[in-house]
Design a protein that fits this description.
single chain, mainly alpha, 17 helices, about 0% strand, globular, disordered C terminus
Length: about 400
């Protein structure tokens, strides 16, 4: 985002230095190395937990996240570090996406307990948005057929996923309240898709604008307008003669009430980081759009969205550090990946673990289908007794 602010013609009035992009990029690289090292240790010492994450219908989508982060590191590469990335890098980064998608999309169509109408939830956007990010990177590197391929795959599956999530079929599994921030991922896919389409076409044409406007509408429909409520009610009284303004005020007040009830009432968790990616994607798409439509309105929108994105990232970073190192409650016992009907294993080395299939998770999904539990992870709270007697000690302590 800061690279786009510094290099775009429509944001020259902000006088952003490329040094900001350089500093943030190196910080991101260091954080990526630290997280990769930490997860490598988890694979070695707690392989069973990783295996259960992979077979979990919600958590498997987050296996796309590291590769999406690497794609954005390549997109945000400062010119002073490297000028032209080799095409081979794009193929290396997109290979894991293709492998994971062949598995997950196949299950969506013919997976029985794992079909899309059964497991659809907002975190599935992570398995789709990588297509658009990869297409954006490939098009920016001068590639053509590969980016179009991934753009087509992403558009097809995003359309199906979008409709499925909107319908909220009776077989859909709902998310627990703690994961409600991932609903912001609705904004990510169309935001990045608009930029990918623009890079492939060479301009922010009608196709790119349609995707961008969809993202912008979803952004405004999900954003919390709480700070403005105190101004809406007096305006409602003063402008009671104007039916249009009266209707807009009533609509915004009701929208605010819905958003508050939807996004409040739960403790901070790493799921809150789901706000950052969509907000930043929408901000970057707005910068690209302002290049084609360079008006006062678009410039103001760029400043507002970029400011919101920056303060959100800073606030979440500080909060995460406080919960991790001061309060030390960032990582509670992860019950949902510790469910097992097998006896605890006495060994913990990764080379002793054998792949036993997805029997445990399939049984868990059948349990979640019962009348007592309609929620994949919320069902866990009602089965504490079962978990306490059957969960492997080494996994639950992870």
């Amino acid at each position: 985002m800061w690279k786009a602010l510094a290099t775009s013609a429509s944001t020259k009035f902000l006088h952003i230095s490329m040094d900001v992009n350089l500093v943030l990029w190196w910080i991101s690289v260091v954080l990526m190395v630290i997280v990769t090292f930490a997860y490598a240790l988890k694979i070695i010492f707690y392989f069973e937990a990783v295996r259960r994450e992979y077979y979990h219908p919600i958590r498997v989508n987050f296996f796309f996240a590291p590769w999406i982060a690497l794609l954005f590191l390549a997109l945000g590469l400062p010119p002073s570090v490297y000028q032209n990335l080799p095409h081979a890098l794009w193929y290396v980064l997109m290979t894991p996406f293709l492998c994971l998608e062949l598995k997950i999309y196949g299950q969506w169509m013919s997976g029985g307990q794992r079909r899309l109408s059964k497991v659809a939830n907002p975190s599935n956007h992570l398995s789709v948005v990588g297509n658009f990010v990869g297409s954006l990177l490939g098009a920016s590197m001068g590639l053509k057929e590969g980016p179009i391929f991934f753009l087509a795959v992403g558009l097809a599956h995003y359309t199906v996923l979008f409709v499925t999530l909107y319908q909220r079929l009776p077989t859909n599994e709902t998310l627990p309240k703690e994961l409600h921030p991932v609903f912001f991922l609705f904004v990510a896919a169309p935001s990045v898709a608009s930029m990918a389409w623009a890079n492939i076409q060479g301009s922010f044409d009608f196709g790119a604008r349609i995707a961008y406007f969809i993202a912008l509408f979803l952004y405004f429909s999900l954003v919390n307008v709480t700070p403005f409520t105190k101004y809406l009610e007096p305006l409602l009284v003063l402008c009671h003669d104007s039916k249009l303004i009266h209707f807009l005020c009533v609509f915004l007040i009701h929208l605010q009430a819905v958003r508050i009830n939807f996004f409040r009432g739960f403790r901070f968790s790493l799921a809150w980081w789901a706000y950052t990616f969509p907000m930043t994607g929408a901000a970057i798409a707005t910068i690209k759009y302002s290049i084609m439509v360079n008006t006062v309105v678009t410039k103001c929108l760029v400043v507002i969205l970029c400011t919101l994105s920056t303060f959100t990232v800073m606030g979440l970073l500080v909060t995460t550090i406080i919960h991790a190192f001061v309060q030390r409650d960032l990582f509670p016992n992860d019950i949902s990946i510790a469910i097992s009907e097998r006896k605890p294993k006495t060994h913990r080395r990764w080379y002793h673990h054998r792949r036993a299939g997805s029997t445990d998770i399939d049984q868990f999904l059948k349990y979640a289908d019962s009348a007592e539990a309609k929620d994949i992870e919320a069902a866990l709270s009602g089965s504490v007794e079962l978990i306490s007697t059957s969960a492997p000690k080494e996994v639950s302590q992870d």
